[in-house]
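Narrative summary of target 7.
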Amino acid sequence: MIKQKAIKAIEQEGILLVYPIKNSSEPDSIWAHLWPRSKMVWGWDAGADRKVSDLWLLKEELSRSDKVVYAKWYQNRATFFSKETFANMMAFQRSDTPLSRESRSILEALEMDSPLSTKQLKEIADLQGRYMESTYNRAMKALWQRLLIVAYGEIEDSSFPSTAVGATKTLFEPLWNQSLTISHEEAEAYLLKKLGADNKFWKFAQKILPAKT
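Modeled conformation, tokenized:
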């Protein structure tokens, strides 16, 4: 029931965060749709609100559902898209601006084998260790923002489960192909109508739009 309610909300709104930012109503979140009268208090101890951990588990399940798409997109936060909105946002963010060597290395690995864990990606891209952490994060951020990669479940490769990351082209090939048929202007028109001119997700999409070469 809760899963279907979350999927319906994502499809209705187009884009939703998982958790609200400082309990603000904007940008919109799955939490706000599931528990509109509940203030979110982040906590994991015995006395913490179970809804926080329940939504964390639901996030992982939704990411593997193939009903919606999950990416660390808005301000690098957990963000869910309806499929139609995702395809149009991919088209809107499409760019011929070259990716960095590190981003290309990660993307090429994922297009060959998806999904992979953070540990696996760092090994493949030779970005292991504390001193390479910022380089890895920058490389991933570029891929997340262009929606070239998605999150797809979790992988147990350490003491804490790691987000499983996959290439959009590999895991959501129909959506990838659909996005290639959508022009930038068509995508802009769709997103503006779906989200609204004052929507924070739309404003963020415009802000991060890659420069044209």
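The mean pLDDT is 93.
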